[in-house]
Every structure is written in structure tokens, then in C-alpha cells.
């Protein structure tokens, strides 16, 4: 009986690691394709990088929304903070950015990770950026209120609060609140801002993000005018 349980445990472990390796291989392929496409278009050192999960990847008109600063979009769908940490060199550091906007934590919360684990991964990202890019500014975009994940409202609010608290007092790190602006008068997420999956955003949702983030981007317009 004990032997059967042991082999069952081994099978589950093997299944877990196979899934993990397959996911990482998938991300590596996506990262390779993404960086190759950016290289083919051309990019400018000292740009502002937007990175993170699919909410960034699907922001197709990022450069049009912020025309006065050079933007590089390295969002990769389905990613978590730990995935960005793994691919930080390829997706951020190689571009020698002056500022980075990061959207991670949404998929992490949905995967059942605690706010402590997520903040730890984001902290590791921040420290690596600070070590290799002196003077860089980092903007952590809080989780959005998606109707399809509203059953996790409490967990998302706790994560956003923890992320805001984490950045308090930091000179070069900021919390960007997109949660509140996307709620209706009753405090519920607005379905009209989302695609049919009620997770990814329509252009109307990105208009809200643009309005919130514009104040932060404006700080850098002066730099590029010099």
C-alpha cells in the first residue's frame, strides 16, 4: 500500500514538472519570436519598456497612445512574475530602458499564489533592474478587476494593497492603480470594458489604462525633448 502511494506521488511530481518544463519551453519560444520581431523593426536604447502578461501583449497601439516617447512592448501572454524574472534579460535589460512598466500578478493570483510569493518575485525583478540599470524607474501596474475572476476579488484587492505598500517610500518604484478606475458606481467591474472572455480588454479598457498611465509617462516626455 505504501509502495502504491509512493509511486502515485512520483507520478504526480513527474506530471507537474513535465507541465512546468512545457510551459517554460512555450514561453522561451514566444520570447524568441518576440525579440526577433522587435529586432527586425528596430529599437532605441533608453526607451520605455512595457512588459508583463497578456494585458500588455494585447495593447497593440501603445506607441500611438504615447507618441512622444519611444515604447517597446514585450508583453507575453499567460506569464507570471516568476516568468518575467526568468526572461528579464531578453525582455527588458537588453534594451537598456530608462523606465519599465510591469503588469504581473494577475495570473499569479489566479494560479493561487500568495501575495507574499508574488511580491517576492517582483522584488527580485526590481533588484535585478536596479543592479544593472542605475537610475531606472519602475512602475508596477496593479491587477485589474476582471469579471471572469471576480470570485477572487478579495485576493486581488489584498495583492494590490500589498503591492502599493511595497512601493511606499521607494525613490524609483511606483504603484499604478487601474483597479478603481475600471469599477462602476456600485464597485463592480464593467463588462463593457472587456472582450467576450471577460478577462482581456476592449479598446475602452485600454483608454482607461492610458488615462491612468499618462501622468507617469508625461514625466519622461521632458527627457526625450532634450
Structure notes:
- With 226 residues, this protein is α/β, with parallel strands linked by helices.
- The protein folds into 2 domains: 1-42; 43-225, 3-Layer(aba) Sandwich (Rossmann fold).
- The chain is globular.
- It is 53% helix and 10% strand.
- The chain contains 9 helices and 5 strands, in the order αβααβααβααβαβα.
- The chain has helices at 2-41, 54-57, 62-65, 81-86, 88-91, 106-110, 115-132, 153-167, 203-225; strands at residues 48-52, 71-73, 99-103, 137-141, 173-176.
- A 5-stranded parallel β-sheet has the order 2-1-3-4-5.
Describe the structure concisely for a colleague.
The chain has 226 residues and is an alpha/beta fold. The protein folds into two domains: 1-42; 43-225, 3-Layer(aba) Sandwich (Rossmann fold), CATH 3.40.50.
Tally of structural domains: 2
Task: Measure the end-to-end span.
Answer: 74 Å
Helix and strand composition category: alpha/beta
Mean pLDDT: 91
The CATH architecture assignment of the largest domain turns out to be: 3-Layer(aba) Sandwich
CATH fold type of the largest domain:
Rossmann fold
Q: Which of globular, elongated, flat, extended, rod-shaped describes the shape?
A: globular
CATH level 1 name of the largest domain: Alpha Beta
Number of contiguous helices: 9
Helical fraction equals: 40-55%
Main sheet strand line-up: 2-1-3-4-5
Uncertain stretches of 5 or more adjacent residues = 9-22
Roughly what fraction of the amino acids lie in strands? 5-15%
Amino acid at each position: 500500500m505504501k509502495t502504491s502511494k509512493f509511486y502515485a506521488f512520483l507520478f504526480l511530481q513527474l506530471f507537474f514538472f513535465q507541465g512546468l518544463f512545457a510551459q517554460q519551453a512555450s514561453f522561451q519560444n514566444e520570447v524568441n519570436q518576440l525579440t526577433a520581431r522587435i529586432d527586425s523593426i528596430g529599437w532605441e536604447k533608453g526607451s520605455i519598456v512595457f512588459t508583463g502578461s497578456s494585458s500588455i501583449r494585447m495593447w497593440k497601439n501603445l506607441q500611438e497612445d504615447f507618441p512622444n516617447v519611444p515604447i517597446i512592448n514585450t508583453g507575453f501572454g499567460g506569464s507570471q512574475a516568476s516568468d518575467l524574472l526568468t526572461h528579464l534579460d531578453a525582455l527588458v535589460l537588453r534594451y537598456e530602458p530608462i523606465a519599465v512598466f510591469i503588469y504581473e500578478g494577475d495570473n499569479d493570483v489566479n494560479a493561487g499564489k500568495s501575495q507574499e510569493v508574488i511580491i517576492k518575485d517582483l522584488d527580485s525583478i526590481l533588484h535585478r533592474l536596479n543592479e544593472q540599470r542605475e537610475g531606472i524607474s519602475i512602475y508596477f501596474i496593479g491587477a485589474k478587476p476582471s469579471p471572469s475572476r471576480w470570485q477572487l476579488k478579495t485576493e486581488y484587492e489584498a495583492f494590490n494593497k500589498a503591492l502599493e505598500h511595497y512601493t511606499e517610500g521607494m525613490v524609483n518604484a511606483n504603484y499604478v492603480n487601474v483597479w478603481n478606475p475600471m469599477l462602476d458606481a456600485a464597485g463592480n467591474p464593467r463588462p463593457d470594458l472587456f472582450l467576450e472572455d471577460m478577462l482581456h480588454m476592449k479598446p475602452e479598457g485600454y483608454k482607461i489604462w492610458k488615462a491612468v498611465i499618462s501622468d507617469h509617462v508625461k514625466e519622461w516626455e521632458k527627457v526625450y525633448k532634450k
